[in-house]
Design brief:
Number of helices: 13
Structural class: alpha+beta
Strand order of the largest sheet: 3-7-8-14-11-10-9-22-23-21-20
Radius of gyration: 25 Å
Helix content: 25-40%
Strand content: 25-35%
Distance between the termini: 30 Å
């Protein structure tokens, strides 16, 4: 099987479009633009990402729910800033069969307006708090830009957590916990990232503030894979989400949300894959190790029996293993599983059986080495951990090499990737820099960073740093 027609280093966007289809992740030939078909392998991969998310949510006392897809217009209209932010992106339903609806419905762009009228019924007392729920569903937004599988689509596979709290401080603690959850998840996906506090003009509609979670792709464009929102009581007031305090008074809840989408899969593909195909982090790979029997005439039973025993041992150890017993050339099998991004290939032939060893080939390095068959489960588990560490370190180095601080716009124009510039706090200056750099304002770093320079636009003293990058 040949490599991609387009090289990753030459045209990342075209390479990406090729790889997601060659690897059978999705089929983009569905007749509605931006609504792609998940192929079985892609859906398994996404399902494994979902399983990691569920594990994190369940471990932090969130309960899974599933709200309806359709939202009544009256629910949607309760929060003015929210409807202004999403009004141009929603799909409206006006008829049921031949009958015009008395009230229009919309396909959820996200679920605040669907959930919060119901939260007002669920929450009565301070003993009902905190309320922490999540769901993994599809959302719909009328995307008008060029679509790209997993990165910019109109039907979005989406995770969203929604929480209600007694006060601002408790909601702030939830925001901090969400950052820890995101950190653990993205490490398992081998994706280094940055948190940014989004600028006021680009925060989530209705939020008090928004924290974005951005990954730097090999094209040196950033991809926002998730976000965390602190709402204060901006939604609880119009939706009347109140609770009775210990002294009998009533207060509005403070709320947060935390969301991620199938863009995680786009980041996994873009950051780790190469010209031979996918390179999947072991924690989400549908197949973690594939066994390739090397058959010689007269030795078939010997090799097949040893391969089957090895398969059974690895599977019993909890390693997602596949035994490729197809009657085709081993080289063709190598190419096929490299394209699928299987982390480890295990080769076993007559000589290996005789020496009680097998050959292991990591997908990222391709360097062959032997491991003893009796100790294979532990060795394979270790190999998977080493591979994940290498993937993370390689991506981290790319982020480090393409993360810059600059003092002037002239200097910034010579750089690529994520650029921090001094900022006076004036929106106009940041927007002017955004236009000059032909990029996007990512936001401010969450960590404290002293800034003693001047704003490169107005020359007034800068009070903080602002990040910019070209983005997807």
């Amino acid at each position: 099987m040949p490599e991609t027609k387009t090289k990753k280093s030459e045209d990342f966007n075209q390479w990406y479009n090729e790889i997601v289809e060659l690897a059978d992740l999705c089929d983009k030939r569905y007749p509605i633009k931006g609504m792609n078909i998940w192929r079985p392998y892609g859906w398994k991969l996404m399902g494994n990402v979902d399983n990691l998310i569920r594990a994190e949510m369940n471990a932090t006392d969130h309960d899974e729910v599933c709200f309806p897809l359709l939202i009544p217009e009256s629910f949607f209209k309760k929060e003015e800033e929210h409807i202004e932010g999403f009004g141009a992106e929603v799909y409206w339903i006006t008829h049921a069969g031949h009958n015009q609806l008395e009230e229009r419905w919309l396909l959820r762009p996200t679920s605040e307006t669907a959930m919060y009228s119901i939260f007002s019924l669920w929450i009565r007392s301070h003993t009902d708090l905190p309320l922490k729920v999540y769901q993994i569903v599809n959302t719909f937004r009328y995307e008008t830009k060029q679509t790209r599988a997993f990165i910019r689509v109109r039907e979005i596979h989406f995770f969203e957590a929604h929480t209600c709290h007694r006060d601002f401080e408790d909601a702030e603690a939830q925001v901090a916990q969400d950052q820890q959850i995101a950190d653990r998840l993205l490490h398992k996906l081998c994706l280094p990232y940055i948190f940014c506090r989004r600028p006021e003009w680009d925060k989530f509609a209705g939020a008090h503030y928004t924290i974005s979670i951005d990954v730097l792709m090999p094209s040196n464009r950033t991809l926002q894979v998730g976000s965390i929102h602190q709402y204060r009581d901006n939604f609880s007031k119009p939706y009347e989400i109140t609770y009775e305090t210990e002294d009998g008074s009533h207060e509005h809840c403070h709320q947060t949300t935390y969301g991620m989408s199938e863009r995680l899969l786009g980041a996994i593909v873009g950051v780790h894959a190469d010209n031979k195909g996918l390179v999947l982090p072991p924690d989400v790979a549908p197949i973690q190790a594939v066994i390739i029997p090397i058959i010689f005439k007269g030795k078939e039973d010997l090799v097949n029996t040893a391969a089957q025993d090895l398969y059974n041992n690895l599977k019993s150890a909890g390693i997602r293993t596949h035994l490729d017993s197809r009657d085709i050339n081993p080289g063709n099998k190598y190419y096929a599983w490299e394209l699928k991004g299987v982390p480890l290939r295990i080769e076993i032939g007559p000589r290996d059986v005789a020496s009680n060893h097998v050959v292991v080939v990591p997908r990222d390095t391709g360097e062959k080495h032997n491991i003893p068959i009796p100790e294979a489960p532990q060795h394979i588990t270790n190999e998977l951990g080493f591979l994940a560490q290498r993937l993370y370190e390689k991506a981290s180095q790319h982020l480090k090499d393409n993360y810059h601080q600059a003092a002037t716009i002239e200097q910034a124009k010579t750089l690529s990737g994520i650029i921090e510039l001094p900022w006076c706090g004036n929106d106009t200056c940041a927007l002017e820099i955004e236009e000059i750099l032909e990029g996007n304002t990512l936001g401010e770093p969450l960590e404290e960073k002293s800034c003693n320079d001047v704003c490169p636009v107005c020359n007034k003293p800068a009070t903080r740093w602002m990040r910019y990058a070209k983005s997807y």
